[in-house]
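Reopening this one. Same input as before:
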Amino acid sequence: MQGMVMDPQGGPENGTVRAYLLHKAKPHIPPWLTWGATGLVGALGHWRWPDNAAAGVGLTLTSVALTGATWLAGKNTTQQRRLHSAVTVACGSAWVTAACLAGPTAGPVDDLFLMGGPALALSWNVRVVLRTNTEGVVGSSDGGLLAKVGLARAQIGAAKVEPNRVTAPLALQPGEQTNDDVTKALARIASALDLPRNAIRYSPDPDSERRGELVIVPEDMLAEVVEWEGPSNLGGSIAEPLVLGRYDDGSLLVMWLPGDPDAGRNSTHGLIAGQSGSGKGDAALNLLTEILSRRDVIVWFSDPKAFQDFAPLRTGLDWAAEGGSQTEVMVAVVEAVIPARTRWLGAHGYRQWVPEAAEVQNDPAHSCRPDGRACGCAGMPFLVAWFEEAANTLRNMGDDAFTGIAQEARSAGISLIVSLQRPSYDQMSTSTRASLPSVIALGCDPRDEGFSLPETVIDAGAHPGAWANRRPGYCYVVSPGIDEARYPSPARTRRFTIRAVPVMEQLAAWAQANGAVADPVTAGAASGVAGRAYTGRTTTADDDVRQPTGLRVVRDEEDDMDHGGLLVDPEDVDIDPEAELPQPEEGDDTPLFGEESGRKPSPEEARRLFAQALEEFEEAGQMIVGPRDFMDWCDRNNLSRPWVSARLKEAAEEGRLEATNTTGRWRIVPTLTAA
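Same output, byte for byte:
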């Protein structure tokens, strides 16, 4: 019988059955060869040292020394193997001593050789057979690695080898080792393998405290920079994956914002965190370009840095704010649209936002009509409320500015994206941080790792502190929909260069022409709070930015002062510097400071002037005001700041203003909704 016989341990074995059997018998032959060699040594020793007392002493000492050396050499192996080896060496060396002195055939010496030798050889054969247990864990397959790192009795199973990735099941010693012992040993494992710390990860089995998977990525495939060339799915739905980059094994880095009831995935809010120079801007651009390329989403975006990184995309946004009072208004608007959107979704039979909610409601199953017929209501696109450099907003509005939004917005089809360098407790409230389940964690100070990533992910091997700002774009991503085993896997976002600017401008133009627009419910709720500050898609032209009269910034070309002559105020031009000073007059000793300045108009005139001022602010889209915003206005109308403060309080009592979270700041209630 000839042919190919499949060897379950190593592959096919070409040849005869004899060759196959010999291959299978190889692991069991060494104990029997040792047994035969022991008999030969005993016979030769008797021929050399028959009845020699000195040789007997030497052989006995040699036997004891050899047994002790075997016991010491087995300290890094399991207790059973160590004992088995020592007993085998002791029995064999004792028999050789007896055979050398008395002869291999004298008395019971030959019987012990014929019975004890095969028994010891068979015991080692049984050990080889049992080396692979029913759980599929192979003993000693790590080459002593685990013993070196303090996990001496743990066992590694058959490894799954992929391109640049090795995954091996790990079983720890019952009752003596836990998964925590492995996470503490990851740095030592990396040292033993001469790899960086974040190349070794451990994923505990959620159903066991002593089992998990050890993942080793020997080569950093993220070292090569990949530039952004365009969105991955132009015209697709926001419910489809957003591609941000790639993992260290070459697979795509993706995340989702809306939930999926069929997949059991919840909608999510996101945090982008990383120190200066870590590539946080590129990570944000990867996410924002993916969002703007989808057909059923609108973006409200706040950036206190005046869109320094995002200017090419600004025209594609539904609403853009540059920080300060504009951002305060946006926060108030998001809070206001949540109940309006939730009410609409509930009325149309949606427990959460799904892509069908963005279409015209022609399905009777999603009708708000009491008779059950299709209502034909306009669809409601998904809403992303993005607050870039949020530390500035949090300083102005308080560390819990986003808490209400974060806790309530997901059910309304809204995702909150917060970007800042250091999401520590002194900048962001713990309630807000706990309500941001998704995070893109870039390089940071090692002391700040716990602010960005969950403790379990750090224990599994994630280490953004190792990058700091030396590897821009390197990140860990934790988000619903991503396999939890991927959480501690490093990834890298794509790089945005000057070559990406024309493509971003084209994307913004596409979004302007083909992207979703705010539905009537969202737009109505926004206008009811922000008034003219919310106008839908924005423009970057300076001429379209309207500001209150007397409150705008004076441009260089509008400065009338003649800088070529003497520095003299216009009202002092006619004064003769050679003229005598006038004689003192009554009132000259009135204090200049410490008393109110300005006139006091009649109550009717005061109400008219103040209403006019609020209208000017509202027309310019500045919906958050305070006494400091009226400084130029007071000078122009010869009114005092205390007078303005009093009028602000009166307007709040009348419902024209609403208090904000910041002391001394008021939100204008649009006149269309004023009581």
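So the earlier flakiness isn't reproducible anymore. For the record, The mean pLDDT is 80.
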